[in-house]
């Protein structure tokens, strides 16, 4: 007879360590940003690697949205701010020309929480559909209900052309790799049964 424990790898032996690997398919580039109500958030995005040829010719056409709506679009000086985001969102044109497509959201509200995706809209050559969307990245925005304490550093992000200071209102950028998730289970039947 064949030993059933050899055939079934899910039967655990004392002092056995089982490793399981789970492959998750998804965006190559996903981050999480955690902010408080009333603060500002920067959803970091870099399109230099995608738009290098387009950057020298003209300002890129960028689109940020959620699964249900367009949040912001910019092509040169023209811009669109989605419903509920009026006067609160921007991708500065001068930064976009350099390949920085980071979305700035001011006066964060609880309903701003969710997953945001950025796309570069590019022209197609000799196609019936004149443009296509090229996915750049996905950012998950989490919002805490408590308002942010006053900032210690009052430097203006736009005037300094640098990332905002890392305070409790802008801190919390966490890199979350989503392409491969390794799920490890350590089991010890002997300890479980005691």
TrEMBL record:
Residue ranges constituting the Immunoglobulin V-set domain according to the UniProt record: 30-119
Localisation: Cell membrane
Matching InterPro entries: Ig-like_dom_sf, Ig-like_fold, Ig_V-set, T-cell_Activation_Regulation
One annotated GO biological process: negative regulation of T cell proliferation
Family annotation (Pfam families): V-set
Keyword annotations from UniProtKB, A to Z: Cell membrane, Disulfide bond, Glycoprotein, Immunoglobulin domain, Membrane, Receptor, Signal, Transmembrane, Transmembrane helix
Lineage: Eukaryota, Metazoa, Chordata, Craniata, Vertebrata
Recorded topology in the membrane: Single-pass type I membrane protein
Origin superkingdom: Eukaryota
Keyword Cell membrane appears in the UniProt entry: yes
Protein name: Immunoglobulin V-set domain-containing protein
Region listing for Disordered, in residue ranges: 143-172
GO cellular component terms, semicolon-separated: external side of plasma membrane
UniProt xrefs under Gene3D superfamilies: Immunoglobulins
